[in-house]
Design brief:
single chain, 299 residues, mainly beta, CBP_BcsN
Length: 299
């Protein structure tokens, strides 16, 4: 009976969950270089969408994970690998308030009134601070065409992005930077997948005489005073030299400054007699004043 039983092997195991962990290289969104990296990717598949949770490496004392939530959706599509449809929801204040209550139940999040946008278009965000002092941000964005490019290409698809992030050592500006500079790293290989609007036109003022085009205003750093070593007066230097302990071994003689105003002028020879002053002679054999003076021959 045992020999006739079917063999139990790994291929007999069927995973019924629609969510699975995939390689980091399969991430549909890649943060800009220098920001918080992705450490894990969870992917869910539907008949009309792909959804990924990109787990971020952060330092937070708040329970839960910081993440991007990215959705690639083709409304009306039914040929996806999943077994059920993902509901299409339009972003409005009520939806955002509901998402904030679900993801930040213990944090007082405040929606920002500032208009912000990245290269894909405008987005919104809310910020708050946990009781432990962590800074939190929740940002949302939908990337889709403002209108259909033709009558046959449908809605063109859409990309929904959510950023749910807390960090104990980051400012609001640091967290908000995660919504700038990221790259969309994937696309749906469907003929009607085109969620992006056309390439924006150049500034019409470029090359037009009489029009000024200025660079963005850059704020230079505040000037800092140069650090200089304090100069001690001569009396303090002499006192420090007297109080310094004597060192064993060879000692270098201290340098002495010469006051050139106290140096006597050099002695001069009498042009009439040809003699040097007697008091100026010394014992130096090289000194010309120690040699006898030979009188000049008569004319």
């Amino acid at each position: 009976m045992t020999a006739c039983a079917p063999r139990f092997d790994p291929q007999s195991l069927e995973i019924i969950s629609e969510t699975s962990q995939v390689s980091l290289s399969r991430a549909m969104l890649v943060p800009s270089i220098g920001t918080t990296p992705i450490i894990g990717v969870l992917e869910s598949r539907y008949t009309n969408a792909y959804v990924q949770e990109l787990i971020l490496q952060t330092d937070s004392r708040r329970p839960g994970q910081s993440r991007y939530h990215v959705t690639f959706m083709l409304p009306g599509e039914t040929g996806g690998p999943g077994t059920r449809d993902l509901e299409v929801r339009r972003i409005d204040p009520f939806l955002i308030q509901k998402e904030l209550a679900e993801r930040f139940p213990d944090v007082a999040m405040e929606m920002s009134a500032y208009f912000v946008q990245n290269r894909f278009g405008p987005f919104g965000f809310a910020t708050g601070r946990t009781t432990a002092g962590d800074t939190c941000i929740y940002a949302w964005q939908t990337i889709t065409r403002s209108r259909a490019a033709s009558l046959i290409d449908g809605v063109g698809g859409r990309i929904d992005i959510r950023l749910d992030m807390c960090d104990s050592g980051a400012s609001v500006g640091d967290l908000l930077e995660m919504m700038y500079g990221f790259t969309i790293n994937a696309y749906l290989a469907r003929w009607n997948w085109q969620p992006y609007d056309g390439t924006p036109s150049l500034n019409p003022d470029i090359g037009t005489p009489g029009e000024d085009i200025r660079p963005p205003v850059l704020t230079p750093p505040d000037p800092q005073p140069l650090s200089r070593s304090p100069v001690r007066p001569a009396a303090a230097r002499e006192a420090a030299a007297r109080e310094a302990p004597a060192r064993s071994g060879r000692q270098d003689a201290p340098l002495e400054l010469i006051d050139f105003l106290d140096v006597p002028p050099p002695a001069t020879r009498n042009t009439a007699t040809g003699r040097w002053p007697a008091e100026s002679r010394g014992d130096d054999p090289v000194d010309l004043r120690n040699y006898p003076t030979i009188p000049l021959p008569p004319p």
